[in-house]
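Let's do one together. I've listed all components of the complex below, 1837 residues spread over four lines.
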Amino acid sequence: MLRKKSGWKSILALTVVFALVLSGCASTEKSGNSNNAAEPSPSADAAVTAAPLTGGELSYALATSPDTLDPHRSGLAVAVRAIRTIHDNLVAQLPDGTIAPWLATEWEISEDGKSYTFKLRQDVKFHDGTPFNAEAVKFNYDRILNPETKAANSAALIRPYKSSEVIDEYTVKLNLETPSNAFLGNLSQALVSIVSPTAAQKYGDQLGKNPVGTGPFKFVSWEENSQITVERNADYNWAPPLVENQKAPYLDKVIFKIAPEEATRIGSVQSGQVLAGETIPPQNILALEKDEKLQLFKANTQGLPYTLFINQNKAPWNELKARQALQAAIDVDAIVKTLYLGTYDRAWSPLTPGTFGYDKSLEGGVKPDLDKANALLEELGYVKGADGIRVKDGKKLTLHYVDGSPNREKRNDIAAIIQQQLKQIGVAVEVEITKDVRSIVFESANYDIYGNSQVNSDPEALRSFYHSGAASVGGKQNLPAYKNAEVDSWIDQGLVEKDTAKRQELYANVQKAIIEQAVIIPIYVFPYTIAASKTVQGIKFDSLAYPLFNDTFIQK
Amino acid sequence: MLKTVIIRLFTSLLVILGSLVLVFVIVYLLPGDPVLSMVDPSTVSPEVLASLRAQLGVDRPLYEQFASYAWKVLHGDFGQSILNDEPVLPKIIAHLPATLALTAASCFIAAVVGIWLGVLSAIHKDRWIDITARIVGLFGISMPTFWSGILLILIFSITLDWFPAMGSDGWKTLVLPAVGLGIVGAGFVVRLVRNSMLEVINEPFIVTLRAKGIAEKLVMYRHALRNALIPALTMIGVLSGELLAGTVVIETVFSRQGIGRVISDALMAKDLPVVQGVVFFSAIMYVLINLIVDLSYRVIDPRVRRSQ
Amino acid sequence: MKALLEIEHLTVKFATPKGWLTAISDVSLSMKSGETVCLVGESGSGKTITSKSVMRLIDYENGVIAGGEMRLDGVNLVSSPQSSMRTLRGKKMAMIFQEPMSAFDPVFTIGSQIIEVMIGHKVSSREKARERAIHLLSRVGIPEPELRMKQYPGELSGGMLQRAMIAMALACGPELLIADEPTTALDMTIQAQILQLLQELKSEFNMAILLITHDMGIAAEMADRIVVMYAGQVVEQATAVQLFELPHHPYTQGLLRSVTSLDSDRGSRLYSIEGSIPSLFELPEGCRFHPRCAYATDQCAKESPPLLDINDRQVACWHAESLAENGAFESIKQTSGIDITEKTESFVREKESGALPNLFEIEGLRKYYPLGKSLFSRQNSVIRAVDDVSFQIRKGETFGLVGESGSGKSTLGRVIMQLEKATAGSVRFAGKTLTGIHTSELHEARKDMQMIFQDPYGSMNPRWRAHEIIAEPLAIHTSLSTAEKKERIAELLNIVGLNPSLQDRYPHEFSGGQRQRIGIARAIALNPSFVLADEAVSALDVSVQAQIVNLMQDLQQNLGLTYLFIAHGLHVVRHISNRIGVMYLGQLVEIAGSEELFVRPAHHYTKALIASIPWPDPSRKRELQAISGEIPSPARPPSGCRFHTRCPAATSLCKSEPPALTQIDHEHWVACHFPA
Amino acid sequence: MKETALAKLTWPRVRASRRLATRRAKLNVSSLLIYAAGFIIVFIVLSALFPGQIAPYSPTEMVMTDIMLPPSLTHLFGTDYYGRDVFSVVVYGSRDSLLIGLASVLAGGLLGASIGALSGFLGGIFDTIIMGFIEVLMTIPGILFALAIAAAMGPSLFNVVLAVALSSVPGYARVFRGQIISVKGRSFITAARSVGAGNLRIFFRHVLPNAWSPLLVMATIGLGTSILVGSGLSFLGLGVIKEIPDWGTLLSQGRGYLTVAWWMSTFPGLAITLLVLSVNLLGDKLRDHIDPKKSRV
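Okay, and this is what the predicted structure of the assembly comes out as:
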């Protein structure tokens, strides 16, 4: 917008872009669950047909600093962007949710669903020359279980893994405590990718600074807070079906530049100092779409959308009517349109559209209705006082809204808007923005509403949020303090049900129940967005919207 | 002279020791269980938690913890990052050059711009030049650095494309952050030099110089400025301390590597060993810079030198 | 002979935050080459502004020449731009200043600052300039000039710096040397040395000297002609002899009469001009002196008198002619010599005073200041500010204490007052030992001993009003009611000669003399028996000095006070004191009755001090008898007799053996092996 | 000949009067600046006291249809991404911004001054210990100190004030101690002792009244610094988040929109800058007034 453009040209460009965005949306909707496909811009389309060029460096601006490059210890999505380039998994999850071979060529699941036998590729070597084999797989998964590893998210992902048996050099059998439909999907996640056992033993704690995997790129250097460099693994020949190029990547190097300040990151992309930058805020997306030199890649994340959990352990939110009042009073559409300017999709269900089992029928179900909300609160005996805040038995109707800092994805702003929206129905919202979500929310359960999201590959993710057995908060309750035996059983069945259609139905039931009982207020689906120079071609995404650079090349 | 140096060294050591205690106590007083922020308590067994506590030593009394910490620090062991087990000292050392370069460059800019404007301002006291120079200087200290930093990026990186907006490799990436931080320093220096110059200009010896028929330029730049800079020199220590602290913000804005980023990240993540290490390290730097300034002051100023 | 410097009707204004200030108006004077002209006047008279105007240095101080003409050797100094003024300054005319300590750039060596002038004026090469600088330094009497070249100003004493300053001024061989109070900041003995040096150099370099001074004595010693200024105007101009013989302007006359000379009658009151110098912001109409003038008429109040030629001189007074002819001014010519017999009477009086009881008894008093503790040497270095002093102050007398700066006289005063703890020795006051007593007892004793300070302004809390300042001792030591206090304050103000209506003013709203009166009022508020006056009149102008001295003498008579009067100005001490002690490097070297001391000084130091006083009588011009050298550092006092390094009569005995204070006559004690 | 003499005489007069005119002018520009600074401060203080009278809209009213409108006559400073009137938000936000500055200066100044005063007046071993402690505190730069406290205690108005206040304590302590010591050495203190005044009397009646003015200057300038440190905390995500945000938070929130809706961050940024600038100008002026060395003609 700082550059001058002739009026006609820009309008033309705009229409083209809009048309494509619209058609892109339409096509994703048509293909059902494949929302996570890259949204190609016109030249990108053209370029796919152009022959890839080998060589070049891709500079890619990351939004925060990775914590570690040890996949098993990392807890940050940003780390996964780099981890993904260095490490491979046994299996890959395709956009439609199906599981495809990767480092494992084929697998068998035992009848009781408690053991998985994988046949492994025999031509794979780690970057340090260590051969990839059944021992390596066993080492990796055992490593995650080992407390000394201080595994983070990977420990949760690998559950209910119990042990491994090396059948032969290239066959490994994984034993589970209980059967799990989510297990294979989870195995596709970068956080449980395979690291070199030699390197892990050699570096110990410091593997995170010296990662060695089997991935398309080899780790070169990590200048903390500045950049991470990976270079082409020339021997690479075992890419997942997610990408077209099965051999070594075209790029010589990918340089992840760490640029936490939005303005800096986007400015660098705009001025061409980096070829690509991630996490583009909505207001800039609109502007960048108009930039002739840039293109946008966008992939919706999977799992749980950003959801506001209403804590039913706090009165009056244990009352269905009170929660329904909130549901009716909060104008999610307005929030999403105002804050995300149409670049984020509104969420309707506890699951994102791309996730298996997503119940599309929920869409358009909840509509803002202030009268209804007011009426519901009246029914509960809350009467508006002089200051417009409702009172019952001398107690004001307040809502303690806890959100974390820093203001990720404008979530604090959602709180601000909801504060104003609920004022209209006489609810005083006390917004608490805290750095210490852990102690306020997860230790002392001191919140009426708290918002969260989770990137996941399987609807099993619902368990830790809605199953009464989950006790992530204070060891006593799940986030909404939701206890519903029916929902519990559907979730339990969903984990083991082998029939896809039946499983889908189970999860649909769960979603319907949760929305009907106003357990939560789903807000938005987060799209992972990359702005890149138009010379950058072929950025792909895995099922969780992490970028893949196997097909990427730079046009001259 | 030697005596003074030794006394100064000795007090510096005491101050460093004091700051070691302070750093330790501050970190100790930070609320929240560091162990719980390291791991997910729902996935880790109490035994692991206990072993982690023992490993960190947080289960022992304060003085014992301090003694062992001090002992380790004495041996160059600042502990390990809670987040990724990285040893703290190498981490600091790795980040130090970028921050030092930034601090030095911004100090340089602050000095050059600040002295220049300060002298102009003092010579033309109460005229337009003075008022302009003061306003310019005051703008430097009145603008939030993150804002001026972003404005710099907007103008010189995005619009004009003269300098990169981010990174810490090469002199080009140093320019904008150094300017962003330097204008803050320049603001302080302008005020300092102006006041100092005004004081010196009123000294009787300036009249003598003029009475001797020395050219006004020489009177100002050779004599007055030299006298004015000597007291200003003492402020370099304070200034570099402030600039060092300013890197916390500016390094984030310009996505630079450096100590400032390390400390702010560590504080957010309650990565206590890193916090301790960086704060202590910056205290040492502060003390060292002040020591050097103090000693060189004694060498440069014949008045102080005489009184030794 | 052609005039070197001509100033005609010069008017200078300054821009101040309060508006334009006319600092000098209509000043005219002319100087011939080789002539010494003295500009005399009290503070605020505009003499320094005049000299700075000649150099056009006022341009840098918001000053503007609003009218008049100045020519130096035919060159117009008013219209010359600064660039051409610069070529004149330092070359054709040079200037030396009052404070040699601050007149040098502290961060450059002496040598480089002298060479800089010559290089700046392109009179010689750097090498030649260096040689000349060394030559000049040695000429002005600086030992080891090569070494001094490399030293910084802070490493030299004030006297040495003033010599160096003179050397620097001479560097380009100026035709006009402007000396602005060149000796005011220096000790008596050094002053004599510098004045002597200037006399020598004047003829040697054939310069004209414009000497600015407030000291009529110096003017008498040095001047060919004297220009008297008052409140920014010239009031009288005459040759030195003429002026001292018969001053025509009432102000000049008053000024000359209020000078305490060494042979004035000690018993009598000093002559003083009433009132104080007007502020330049509120100048009176007509003749600026008329409010203080005894002869003022209506005409004086309305019309400003022009500078008229009367009797071969210039006077700005409507009545000058008639006053001079009518002999309204008694001849103030000093009688030559000191007639000892005339003074027998006072001797008798002093002898009687010997019978008076002692109020203070000071025994072996020492005060050492540590010079920072040393890590490496066990030996503590100390400044021996007061080193073994014993004397008595008798009830009702005034004991004068004189000595150069660094002699320890003020420290001695403070230790006696118990404001500082003595290192050793005892002080007994009215029979009670003060050293080492309990705080509460000391508190009681303080009621009886009060103090007047050198800097009346500094000694008052600037945020307090006059009545609060005076009331402070009352508030501390008495339980008077507010009304009683008020009454007492009014009474005190009346006693010290201040209008009680001024009591609500702040210190800065008073003139120097008025402030000192407030200081005195505070000191006598509790009716003390003893008052220490520490350089109480040194900072005041001559005419005001006389007023304060008179006031103090009146108070002594009326209230029966005992004074310890510390000063470096010998005439005043002589005038007010019964007995005088002379201090040198922390020790008392001589104690004698006031007349006795001046008539028959026994210590060579006392003798030198007396000899170095300039006499306000040009007819008695004499070679100034300056002793050589400067006072050594009290941290490293010389062995034996501490004065031996400067003493003309010193022998090897003096170097090794410290002389004890011994009585040589009735009431006359001296510490000298070979008293004069 | 007479004519030339006359010409010679008149010329410098003309010259002088021209110079008089310029001199007078230069005095005015300086005071004009002070007036401007005073006006800005008065306006901001009024905004903080009576925001309702100045702001045309409610600071919380979100008009979702009017988001990110550029400045116009209806919205002087434009609207933000919530559709709030930026001018109104800035006017209301002045209260917390000023509060952060004032409260932290007051708290830090009082604590620092008390420590400095005691240390300087009592002297001796007490002074040595206190100043040693202060010296140690000085080794940790103010911002870092504030950052640590804010990070530890979490973002709230009180904590930000506390953080900024505590971080400024050593500076105040040092300056005030120096001032106390210098006043202690002046001769009117000796005069008071000589009339028998006790320690308490000397401290409260003589030393304090003459020592506090440089502290006032420092506090004035410190007010600016505090506001800036406060906004720095907002930038690092440690600021206060309230329904009506302070300027630092506004600026910090709006900075991501700089290329899209520059008015969102520019006006709060300007408000901070102008306030700090004005406060500094006044502080400088105050210093000139108080320091007799500089007010000399």
